[in-house]
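Researcher: We're teaching a course module on how sequence relates to structure. For the next exercise, students receive a sequence and then see the predicted structure as tokens, so they can try to spot secondary structure elements on their own. Here is the exercise chain.
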Amino acid sequence: MIYPKDFENKIGFTMIRHYLMEKCETQMGAELVNKMSFSADRKYLLKELGKVDELRKIISSGESLPQFSYYDVAGWLAETRSPGSFLSSEQLYKTLLTFATMASLHDYFSYDDSRCKNLCAYFREIPLFPELEREIARCIDKEGNVKDSASPELYEIRRSIESLSRSMHKIMRRVLDSSISQGVIEKDTTPVLREGRMVIPVAASHKRQITGIVHDTSATGKTVFIEPSEVVEAGNRLRELQKEEEAEIIAILTALTDILRAEYENIKQGCALLSSYDFIKAKALFAIETGGEMPFIEVKPELDWYHAVHPGLLLALRQQGREVVAMNLRLNEENRILIISGPNAGGKSVALKTVGAVQYMMQCGVLPTLYSNSHMGLFTNIFIDIGDEQSMENDLSTYSSHLANMKFFLQNANPQTLVLADEMGSGTEPQIGAALAQSILARLGASGCYGVITTHYQNLKIFAENEEGFVNGAMLYDRQHLRPTFILSVGEPGSSFALEIARNIGLPLEVIQSAKDIVGSEYVDSERFILDIQRDKRYWKNKRLEIKEKENRLNKLLEDYEAKADELKNQRTTILKEARQEAREILKGANTQIERSIHEIRKSQAEKEKSKAVRRELEDYKRSLENEIISEDVPDALKPLKHTSRKKKREGKEKDAEAKPTGTLSVGDYVTIENGGVVGTIMAIQGQKAEVAFGNLRTKIDLSKLRSSLKKPQSPKSGTSLSSQNTAEEVSRERQLKFKNEIDVRGFRADEALQAITYFLDDALQFNARRVRILHGTGHGILRTLIRQQLKSNPNVQNFADEDVRFGGAGITVVDLA
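Model: And here is the predicted structure for the students to work with:
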């Protein structure tokens, strides 16, 4: 129930209806706006608000909507229910457009879309009339005229009219030419129509010189309009054909109307849905313009609002280039009735109207102007008492009308009621008015209703502070600039600032001082005490917020540290796992190196028992390393094998260089090239370079690239003749001549490919090859990745990259050696 009858005027909702009607494209949509009413049915409101919110989001996204051309076809058919009545050809064409709109709307919302489930469910039921569309389109053209092909009879009649009209024009042309040659009429004279007959305008003085029938005379009487006798018979026949055409058109229109009339109920349903679409679209556009959003709709009464504004005030201030001050409000079972106090013109009445308008909007199916995280409960009753309601007819004064409203409130208020009262208790002697207002508030509080009350009375502020279910609110005031801020602060009472406002207006100071003396210093100071209490409350509230914020930050830091600790623990486990895997791979490579060494021993025809002993020793070493890898921590023996970054390697090299100067290597020492497998002997040292003999091959290498070796280089068997040494030199030269700066490892297993590339790079270094190419193919990129990992760890590799796309691209790696 809404009270009083002019409730909408009091809260400014009439203006909202007006805005909505302007957004409608059709009269039928505007009529629905006019019929819009208050409801407390949550299920109905969820559907209505859901449809509006879905269409609002579609429009806001920029998505195009179906073409909308809608006319009141159902209303036209209702007017042509009597037999023989029919729709005009223009109305039938508009009916065709309406049917096309129904089909377009049906197709648009026929799919299942979570974004607009309410709209889809609603407009999926719109009826379609494809056969009627085809029949109307067959008979009516886009100009709203009946087509020649609408019926065979109409086609023949119009052909006859066209043929007869051509004949009449020829005859008329002959008559005109003859009359012009005789000087009866002017040369530029043309035939005109009068009463459906083709006539010639002739000067009254020459009317007897043309044989025919006079059909009309000009207003001055100087011109007569004569139908020549030669075309009278043809003209009569033309009139007959035109009558036949008219009768045939009526027959066609009547037949089409009869077909439509048979579908009247379905057409009426479709038109109603189109009207609803126009209505919903108008509400969606209004929500976009005013910032309306879909809140949470609660079953029980509740007001938990964020950034609520009165839409009428919002639009009015926007036209003036000003912004409205939004309001936050929370009323629940603990605090049901808000007592707002504050200065005059401070926004108390606006806040009251905003509460009424926003709540009423939502319960009328219009998206309320607040944020979507707001919670809105449902009320079965909304009562308001605001403004001057004195009535000479009913012999009511302003105060009497307020009391009448209070009586109605007390009789009908319940827990499902929202009461809005402006300046409760005003209009009479202040002490009695304040006492009555407090008594009425106590009764309203006992009824369990919700409410927003504005007042200047001090006793009501104290009452709200101490009474259960009540809470104070203040419209804040800028004391420095002596102007209202229009901000509502819930939880503390406000001051009227009467003396401050009087001083700002310019009232004489002696008058203000006299007023202070009359009311007494205690009363005047009470306002200041209230302000001091408010200031202290705000201070301690801010302090609590600061402490809470710091606690939250500390908790966040603690959570971050714990998360990082867990992450480090996981990283440690991952690193250990990777280290073990890398160690296994190194062992695998070492095994390959061992096999190579054994192979070289065999080639040098070493003793069989000695080879077996070497193999057993290497196997024992391998098993000891594997046993150490099984342990949880990485053993010291494997630490040199762990993967390190290039930066760490460089740092390690620098430390090694500092710890072990180049002078530690001397002529005669056995050495290998860094990461190489062939053992050589230093033959001479010149500065930072050494001449190293690898068998019968000698080369100069940087001392920093050499590593001391306990192994001895392979040597020819004792008793080898000079011819054998010459043969070895020839073999070495032959290997150098046959060496190619390219190796193809496509089809190799990973370990085979890596071993082959190791030998290939050793040979490249021995033969001073600066750039080589490794063909590995593309495939899944696994072999390419492993090869590049090995190249990255080889200090003799200066750089590597993909080959030019013209010569193989990513399937070939080009390596630059140091």
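Model: If you want an answer key for the exercise: The longest helix spans residues 521-603. The chain is about 55% helix and 15% strand.
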